[in-house]
Amino acid sequence: MSREPEPEREGQRWGFGAFLLVEAVFILSAVFITAIASTSGADLSSSMAFLLIGSIVPTVLAAAVAVVITLVRGNGPLIDLRLEWNWADVKVGLKLGALGMVLTYVAAMVWARFVGNQNATSTIGELVDGTTMPVSVAVVMFLYVCFVGPVCEELIYRGLLWGAIERQGWSRWAAFLLTTLIFAASHLEPLRTSLLIVIALPIGIARLITRRLTASVVAHVVNNFLPGLTILLIAVGVMPA
Predict the structure, then answer these.
(1) What does the pLDDT look like over 83-123, one tens digit per residue?
(2) Where would one find coiled-coil regions in this protein (predicted)?
(3) How far apart are CA 151 and CA 123, in angstroms?
(4) What angle do helix axes 213-235 and 193-210 make, rounded to 10 degrees?
């Protein structure tokens, strides 16, 4: 585990306003795509296209805006978002990601027992549940859930938001707590918020102990792998829904 001090944020001219702008981009783009889909009278194949667009575009667009903000108002993502590559961080991310998978499984089982199995399912899981997707669509969804989504979300929450909190002079423990809570709430799935907090803990811990984003990205990818693979196998009809 790295115990080196957090680097100074010299030249960073962005803070909470940048995060609020990124969240606004995410929400408004999602609303816009949903509005188009609801008025298009789409058939199944078009609905699958809208499913991909509505799931992927808002998150990718928001993450892109976060990166642009660091380029225009700061030192770029490598410095401002702590996106430095480090093999030691990869190892930490793998370990905490594996722990997160176990924790997620246990938490989901407990949640399903007391709240109901349906409420433990993510929004994307509900959308593909019982639906046989074209293989190409299922593969794209798998890649998004396992890789693209985690990278983008880490850039936004444990990159941009974490940096905004630290810029205020708050401790990294405050950053860990707030980013975990806001990450869970931002999924806009009220019934699953407490479950999402549990899922987010190992990911946040990876960022906390290494002070860089690589570990949390790896932990997030590992944590999402089995759910993403399950969605893929169900979507193509290999596993029963």
Answers:
(1) 988 899 999 999 999 999 898 888 778 877 776 655 555 55
(2) none
(3) 19
(4) 140
The tokens for 211 are 């002070």
Task: Say what the pTM is.
Answer: 0.89
Domain boundaries, the chain: 16-235
> SS3 string of the chain?
CCCCCCCCCCCCCCCHHHHHHHHHHHHHHHHHHHHHHHCCCCCHHHHHHHHHHHHHHHHHHHHHHHHHHHHHHCCCHHHHCCCCCCHHHHHHHHHHHHHHHHHHHHHHHHHHHHCCCHHHCCHHHHHHCCCCCCHHHHHHHHHHHHHHHHHHHHHHHHHHHHHHHHHCCCCHHHHHHHHHHHHHHHCCCHHHHHHHHHHHHHHHHHHHHHCCHHHHHHHHHHHHHHHHHHHHHHHCCCCCC
The residues near 86 (Cβ < 8 Å, ≥ 6 apart) are 2, 210, 212, 214
Sign of CA dihedral 225, 227, 230, 235: negative
